[in-house]
Request: fold
Amino acid sequence: MKEKMMLCSDLDGTLLTDDKEISEKNIDAINRMLSEGHYFVISTGRPVASGREIVKQLGLTKPGCYMIAFNGAVIYDCAADRILSKRSLPIEHVQELFESAKKKNLYVQTYTSTDVVTYRHTKELDFYLKNSSIKNYKLSSKIYDVLEEEPQKVLLIDLEHEERLKEFQKEKSDWERGKCNSFFSCKEYLEYCPLGVSKGYGVEYLTQLLNLSIDQIVAVGDERNDIPMIQTAKIGIAMANAVDEVKAAADCVTKNDNNHDAIAEIIDTYILK
Reply:
């Protein structure tokens, strides 16, 4: 019997085209691998609510489909529509990040189970909502009155000056140690997640859950938050459209980009070969 494989794919810039769509060729390849008993995992920084909508639209609610959301803070079984694991940021860390961002005049947001939560409506919020296909948000000067539980991450956004985010991360590096995990998911997004959480953590969790070995894992992505996942997998792949840091961390690079069926290329080469 052929060994089962697990393909972990980033969503934006990898599985999805620049127009936030997925090609028929990619969907067909995913369905072929699922029909042979392999596992397909969407791995995203998006919230569960946003990822769940994508999963439903793509028909990825079959057995063998899973999702790593919030960069690994949530592990979700797409077929059972059930959260398997959830890690959170302590509320005092959320408060510190919000207050520090406000002092630097940087946009900052967090999440409830259904909404983006931030201080006020800005161009950064509009940018995020559009690119994440999220509609629901709440505005409040007292963020912690809106949160019904500790959230999965905090996100800072600067659309024009990446250096301001880098400076913020550097200034908070001593505070961050032992409290949480920060990284860039693109040049506009600085993310703070629970300590030890990353897409690589999500891959390790599912590997143990499904009784697989790392030798059975293939992972692909295009941005810096994909690097832990790519380095965890036996075969770590960078998209042709990936940033240089991801290409340097990967074992190989796809011939095609996210607009030209790269996922089908990977499935036919490494999963169904």
